[in-house]
Amino acid sequence: MNLTNSTAEIYVPDGTGADKALARTTHMGIGAHSDDVEIMAMDGILKCFGQKTEWFTSVCATDGAGSPRDGIYASYSDSDMRKVRKAEQKKAAVLGEYGAAVLLDYPSAIVKDPSSPGLASDIREICKAARPSVVYTHNPADKHDTHVAVMIRVVHALQDLAADIQPQKVYGVEVWRDLDWMPDADKVVFDVSAHENLSNALISVHDSQICGGKRYDLAAAGRRRANATYYASHGVDEATQLIYAVDLTPLMHEAKMDIREYVDRHMAGFRKDVAERIGKFI
Known about the structure:
This protein has helices spanning 18-23, 36-40, 42-48, 78-95, 108-111, 118-130, 145-159, 196-204, 207-210, 216-230, 249-253, 259-279, and strands at residues 9-11, 27-31, 56-62, 100-106, 134-138, 169-173, 188-191, 242-247. It is of the alpha/beta class.
């Protein structure tokens, strides 16, 4: 497998050869930045943790050079931050017992450039080698430009795969915008209550981001707990942490569908739900 960037890397925590490590993949998280996967793909990480036949692979698109920095990282150069964020992603891979961590090392500007084919090509080749059953990526309503760009590249790459090697499920998960606005019937709900210590540790290992002024560790845990409590208004909590996602699987099979049109379907459902609820009491 030839990845576009010479600086790209496939890290395998248990020392298995890269080809074999990718081939055993069952669940894959494809994120824009180091730490995105630990926020949005916890369902897959937990499903594979401690298992012998289920393996999680993380894919990080960007190089981390543009990261905000503070504290001990305040004087770090872009080159320094690239090294730190790579190291943190590898630490997460060890801690979460990932099958592999793929670091594609793209500048954010290239990821966001629609005329640059490299990222979609790399994702396509990785998925051919790994053949994951489940893929987690960013949701189309995310408000971070790089996240949305990565999601689009993922969708396009998966659309180009032969039907027999496409994943069974593709999910767009909340990070830089939650999905609480979606009607419950449209939400994919992941119960990630188990191993709370592991999920907290996986986010916390990205110290350069947390000390850099963004408390992702507290924010991610808080959102999951809020989702669990506010999911149902009439009934006791059945989980302590929930993550919401939108099912992107139909986009693989409807290649001509505009992603904006697909998102608008869910937004239309939300508008209808709100209007009907208000209308009941007028």
